[in-house]
Amino acid sequence: MKIDGNYAITAKSPIGIQKGILTLKTEGNQLSGSLNNGSDHLTILNGKANGNEYEFTVHIKGPIGMLKIVVKGRVDGDKITGSSKIAFGNITMEGVRQ
User: Fold this and answer.
1) Whether pLDDT at 63 is above 80
2) Which listed CATH number (3.40.50.2300, 2.40.128.120, 2.60.120.1680, 3.30.390.50) goes with 5-97?
3) pTM of the entire structure?
């Protein structure tokens, strides 16, 4: 399944709920794109895709400085889910393709 598209997402983290737009684009198994949460426009790094599963890294300003967040997840139809473990808790994400 192609995971390319724009997704309206909601992420639940230890610092609260964040909403944004996740843009994903595949070329073979390479994954690129961005995450825009209204105040930050983050570029996806080290993106990989395998079927409907994906993994990517973003760097975001957090309460204790820059955070490296590795997100792993999957796309089922128009629904996207993902999760990440960070030093002070877990992040879960879900959303729908626009």
Assistant:
1) no
2) 2.40.128.120
3) 0.91
